[in-house]
């Protein structure tokens, strides 16, 4: 079980069905190797894992591109008109991670164990980390992108909670 600092905000966790689907998805991938630019299903780069998770868990199909281009696009919040900046970890939010002002790594927020980020990282492969663990790893700058479909939808309602 991950430990968390009391000053880290969380959103309301999704229902049992969403949690169990996310738990099955991430548990099935833990330990799979990191390979730069890999899209899965047996090895992943960080963006490939985020794409895979959003496709499997939410039916979203995001573009394929080199990670440095994607992170710059995500940082400008221009990936799609239906994504918005979030202010905290929420279920299926894209986490932009950086050790300085410019993000250089991405992961996928999951509301499991109080809130974790699934990510694929060189040397470890696919792992999950609490927000505190990400900070210990040196990712001091965390930003969030939350999917908000035009009609509002369930993900938008959860993200607004």
Q: Nearest-angstrom radius of gyration?
A: 14 Å
| Secondary structure category | alpha+beta
Describe the global form.
globular
Strand content: 15-25%
CATH class: Alpha Beta
Spatially, the strands of the biggest sheet line up as: 1-6-2-3-4-5
Unreliable segments (pLDDT under 50, ≥5 consecutive)? Answer: 1-12, 156-161
SS elements, strand count = 6
Secondary structure: helix percent: 25-40%
Q: Kindly identify the CATH topology.
A: endopeptidase fold (from Nostoc punctiforme)
Tell me the CATH superfamily.
Answer: endopeptidase domain like (from Nostoc punctiforme)
What is the total domain count? Answer: 1
- CATH architecture grouping: Alpha-Beta Complex
Describe the protein.
The protein is α+β, with helices and mostly antiparallel strands and 161 residues long. It has a single domain (16-160), classed as endopeptidase fold (from Nostoc punctiforme), CATH 3.90.1720. The protein is built from 5 helices and 6 strands. It has a 6-stranded antiparallel sheet with strand order 1-6-2-3-4-5, with helices on both faces. A hairpin with a 3-residue loop joins strand 4 (116-121) and strand 5 (125-129). The protein is globular, with a radius of gyration of 14 Å. The relative contact order is 0.22. Residues 1-12 and 156-161 have low confidence and may be disordered.
Short description:
The protein has helices at residues 16-27, 46-58, 67-75, 131-136, 153-160; strands at residues 83-86, 94-98, 105-110, 116-121, 125-129, 141-147. With 161 residues, it is of the alpha+beta class. Strand 4 and strand 5 (125-129) form a beta hairpin.
